[in-house]
Amino acid sequence: APIEIAHPALFVPKLDIAAKAAQRKVQADEAAGKASQARLAAVAASREAARATMALRAAVTVKTRADAQLAAAQAALASTKSPDKEELAKDAVAKATARLEELETKLNAAKADLQPKLDAVGPLREAAASAAAASAAAAQEARELSRALEPVSVFISRKTQRLYVRRAFAPILEIPVTIQDPERPIGTHVFTAVEQANGGMRWSVISVNDAGDAKSALDRIAFPQDASFDRIAGTAQLRSSVIISDEELSSETGKGTDFVVLLGGEPQGGIARRRSYAPAEAWYQGPRYRYRLPFWR
Hints:
Layout lengths: L2 E3 L11 H63 L3 H66 L3 E6 L4 E6 L2 E7 L1 E2 L8 E10 L2 E9 L5 H6 L1 E2 L4 H7 L7 E5 L24 H4 L8 E4 L4 E4 L4
């Protein structure tokens, strides 16, 4: 049965991760909202610039036609011989000239309308890109803090002299660790954080094939003075665990698992009874083909 244990080596949370994660979530949502607004502003500016560009092109097209009409009227006036036709030609030239002046005014107005809209697009796109980057960074930090709410699992192996850390069933750290009297068995001990109280953490321990008591095992571990490890230890939550063992990690430890440790000389339950894939061979003679089949033993 687990018994309560206290030891200075066992983790003490240094941060209120839940409150910080909630705060970062709010900030990430705010950053996402600002990014969305900036993107919409950039899109709206691009549309306005596109409409103004189309208006300018249409004005240029109409003015080009008016230029051609004026040139045709002037050519007709120059070539006419009849007084009656001359008056009509002069009237056509006057109308074409007035029309051209009107279109030039509209063209200049379209140019003046377009330029500030084009000038606005670039800064708004940059602002949208900056807001999107800030939103992505805030979301990533919020995800990391949310992940920090998951329990931490630490495994210390006397056999490999290594310390391993997993969180949310994924490896996040592996570093060397110093164990006093490394040739002397240390046993297998599982420490579990069971309750947060008075700014600290209450721990329990279960010892298996004990080679010494759990406190002595912790006394023999020189936990690394590593910034990454200290940061992880400071975010330990309920259900976090520390495993100390003479054994190394089992190959069963992998993606989506916590630490799996098989104890030498101990019954392994279903693992010992698991069928192994035998390199034996069986032959099947079919009507036309001869198969060599591996089989389970």
